[in-house]
Amino acid sequence: MDMLGLYPTWYEPGIGSGWVIGIIATLHVLFSHTAVGAAILFAFLAYIGYRDDRPELIDFIKKYGLFLLVFSYILGSITGPGIWYSTTVGSPNGISALIHNFVWKWATEWVFFVIEVVAVYMLVYLVGKVSQQTHLKIAVIFGLTSYATMLAIVGILSFMMWPGHEKWFTEGGYLYGFYGPNTFAQLAIRTAFMFTMTAVVGGIVAAGLKDKEFKRWLLRRLAVIGIISTIIGMAMYPWYLSTLPEVANVLMANRLPDYFTPAVLFVLAAIMAYFIVTLMSPRVVTASVAGIATMAILVLGLWPGETVRETVRKPWIAGQYLYSNQVIGRDVPGMDVKSEIPLLEEKGFTRAHVFWPENQREINPHNAIHVGQSLTLTACANCHSLSETGMRPLVNYFGGISDIERIKTYLVGAIATGNTMYMPKVPLKDDEAEAMALYIASLNDDEVVARYVNEKTRQAAASEENTRLSAQ
Amino acid sequence: METEMLYALRDPLGVPSHPLMFLVLGVLTWAMHIVAVHVLLGSSALAIYGSLSSQSHWRRLAAAMVNTAKVAISVAIVFGVAPLLFVQVIYDPFWYTSNVLSAWWVIGFIIILIIGAVALFAFYVMNKSMAEVEKTRCPGSMILAIALFLVVGFIMHALAVQMLHPEKWMEWYAPGGIIDPSGRSIHEFNLWRFGFFIALSAPMIGLWLYAYRRYLMARENENAEYLDFLKRLAASLGSIGGVISLVFFIAWMLTLPENIASFATSIWPVLTILALAAAVAFPMLIARKLDTGLWGYAPFAVGIIAGLVVAIMREAVRWQTLFGVHGYNPLDYKVHMDWYSTLLFIITLVVMGGAVLSYLVTVAWKAGQTKGMYTPSPAVNRLGNFAIATVAIWILQYFGFGLWVAYM
Ligand code: HEM
On chain B, which terminus has fewer CB atoms closer than 10 Å, C or N? Predict the structure, then answer.
């Protein structure tokens, strides 16, 4: 028995699962980057504090370190698995693909994570209790391991778009999956922006300093770091683009919203403006100004990156072989993975899907609407909301029509053949296409189901009548 | 759900090493997770109880326990992430289904845990000088934290139990034959099982208190009355908590699902009870020795071993259900051996992890035992340099292999 290894679908009609995942991911970036930024800065303050014998700096670390480091650290480490959990429920096969390719990399990252947790507490609590040289060693360990966690994760992130190397498809293996030109371009950009983050988050730290002179000195330096790292990050963007496959550039040219480029430029300009203002008059930076700026910059800065990532990897969700709707769309001989499209073409979702209600395995006029719902949930809901809110509501995309035949024609002609660039190929049996069309029509028109059932019943009665007559 | 369907859900990528490695690592790290959870819940409970008291010993203990809880939550999270990783490597069909069917709770888990952690921190920050003053500020925050931690644990529990019922999944997903994709419900739980894992916090924090007491004894002029108070408290937490845990455990065994009811009469419950009894009785058994040498730390070490036995028993329940009843064998997962990443993990864990953690723990330990500033010996310094070098080498190999693969 050949079955399609698909899980149940989680569908959230209100805001849509995509948004839930996005919100948690944003929070994670906020917390984790704050933690990294603060950590780098604290190591630096400790260094200056010891070098110039300035106990007030060491005091400061003790006082605020707890809040910034431990707090953002803990929240960062909760939202980290949070991303896992939320992708798990939004895209179980997607996270599974990452886990099964990279489990050891994640386990390796976990070793760094354990070290970080021990080090972060020591960094804060052992200020003044261990020799200066020892404290610096701890800071170095903390800094290096934090960076190593980024190294460990970046290849996994780029695999979500492309396997590192073309050879992964034919030869498989961790190294070809993880490493490629795109991995390094991404790493370089992320590293640059990590310093931007440090500079922004540093504002919160600096705002708390009592010593006016030192505060100004620190804020100026942070502003310079911020300006330089932002420029470097921007300058590397063309390199990053050049590591993307041809199709990605086509997608970006065609599918990104028109306001995208101006919006990105605006965000970058805002970041630069913030740094320039702090450079000119550090007094402006109070803890709340810095806090708000941090949130704004992180969220705004995150958004273009995420939009690009989402746009260029459509219709895939991982490794260019797994579709967003969880179906495997191409062979990966290197890993003995077979496309599931032939199976779908042969049997259809209704017969092949593991999680399919038994009473929906055969389609008839009475259950057609439910089968249609199940099909749409399975094949489309990952990208299209089925209500009027949320991500790309399906209702809006069919121009308000409730003509089952027309919808069916589109489904069979465009989607079942895989004729769009950004949507998966979704093979549909004829009766499946009709059921899905019925369901989609019902989103616009409450009465369509009743009409459909009536019509089918009449047709059935008529044909029965015909058979009877011809038999006579 | 038929066995073939369960197998169909497996990831076609296979796993990069023998599946047994993931099974073992999952059990080991989960044991650490649950022990840390016990310390978290136990210390939080003692903290709130003590902070509502006006007795000076209790207040002092409460202050110490808030500090413990604050670290324990980090440790619990770190050791929660690891089994979270491993469980989905070999039990993916079960774990993912269970998660998706209760999706909102999975999301809620994160949010509730965040609020709980914030509440714990708020309590800590507001009561930094609890041992010195009579008044406790905002005890509600700590109560809230504990309540939320329990909810978090309950969600974990439901996910762990739901995965054991493939025969019910379809009814949960499509009640009456119509799919309900909302993920709003918790579908299955067993309060005895959950209660058992929670109740173990009492004996475990008792064992932890022996270690805390031993730590204090290393200092000069430590208040003997306080030490005595700790010892009595630890003993009663151990015995009373042990009995309560036992009751929950037996009730769990009696309420196991019918198809694995025979588990209750297997060797596992016997081993579990023996291990827990040994851990609780251990401080009494070593009696006088407790105050000599490093023996004061031994009870907690025995507690960790008991936690490991509990973890193995819990895995045996899962094995008997999934393999025994449903015919799913996690150990026959298709293997796509990947030597580089397997060895990278092992070497990172053993060499780098070993070096860095021994350095950090040595420093933390010595600093805690030293009055004033601790200056390490040259040997410890060398260990520190070696530790930093291992991390640096790790980063170098990352770029070495990476650039070679990407551009050659
Ligand atoms: C205060 C917080 C927490 C509490 C009280 C808690 C408690 C528990 C309990 C009682 C169980 C056993 C459930 C059962 O088998 O019936 C459990 C299992 C588990 N916990 Fe936690 N937990 C907490 C936080 C976390 C976190 C933050 C993570 C991950 C990031 C996590 C990951 C896990 C996993 C993966 C399992 C199941 C492992 C398996 O089935 O193999 N826990 N937890």
Answer: C
